[in-house]
Structure formats: structure tokens, C-alpha cells
Amino acid sequence: MESHKRTLVKTLCWRISGILLSILLTWIMTGSLMLGAQLGIAYNIIRAIQYYITERAWNRIQWGRVKEYHLG
Hints:
Layout: H1 4-30, H2 33-59
Helix pairs in contact: 1-2
């Protein structure tokens, strides 16, 4: 199982790249950097929360996990 800290860092890294991509795409589509920034940031804050909750839920599900064996 992952720690909350690891899940949080993974979430932040993933969403930072998502924010930049969303801003760029919205800017290209609308021609407005301000609108791109607003939509990109708002959308990705929501997605970060959703990703974190989903990751934590999946950590509680044992399906598909392989038991680790430690030698020694």
C-alpha cells in the first residue's frame, strides 16, 4: 500500500503537467491566455482531487495485487 505522501506527490506531478497542457490547448483554441489559465487551473484542481480519491480507493482493493515475498 502506498503512503498518503506518495499518492499526494504523484497527484501533484501528474496534475502540473495536466495544468500546463490544458492552458496551452485552451490558449490555442481561444486565443486568450487568461481564459486558458483560468480553465486550466480550475479543471485540474478538480481532477487532482478526483485522482487522489481514486488512488486511495484502489489502494483498499486487493484484486490484481501480487503478494510480495521478502527474503532474509
